[in-house]
Specification:
This protein is an alpha+beta fold. It contains 4 helices and 3 strands, in the order βββαααα. Strands 1-2-3 form a 3-stranded antiparallel beta sheet, sandwiched between helices. It is globular.
């Protein structure tokens, strides 16, 4: 038996108005031994992220370097948010492959 575990890093715990910054997937077996893992960073304008992020989330994501990776991912996009749909498809493909 395999178990998929999904982890979302966000700008806080608000029900509306926040951003998903990173999607992580971990696949384990019944003993919770890691079989596969992958993560995807979603690009957003960093000014908008910082305007709505909670202090706790900002501290955590600055320390881990996630905010820098979010800004870098956004700078690499040729069309804003064009990669978000692709990330959703990649997550589903990854889950299907494992």
């Amino acid at each position: 038996m395999r178990f998929p575990i999904l982890d979302l890093e966000t700008t806080g715990l608000e029900e509306r108005g926040g951003y998903i910054l990173e999607v992580g997937v971990l696949i384990t077996d019944e003993t919770f031994t890691e079989l596969a893992s992958r993560s995807w960073v979603l690009g957003h304008p960093i000014e908008a992220v910082l305007a709505g992020i909670t202090p706790q989330a900002r501290e955590m994501h600055e320390k881990s370097g996630l905010l820098d990776r979010v800004a870098e991912a956004f700078a690499l996009e040729t069309q804003p948010y064009s990669r978000h749909g692709a990330v959703a498809e990649e997550v589903l493909t990854f889950l299907g492959a494992h």
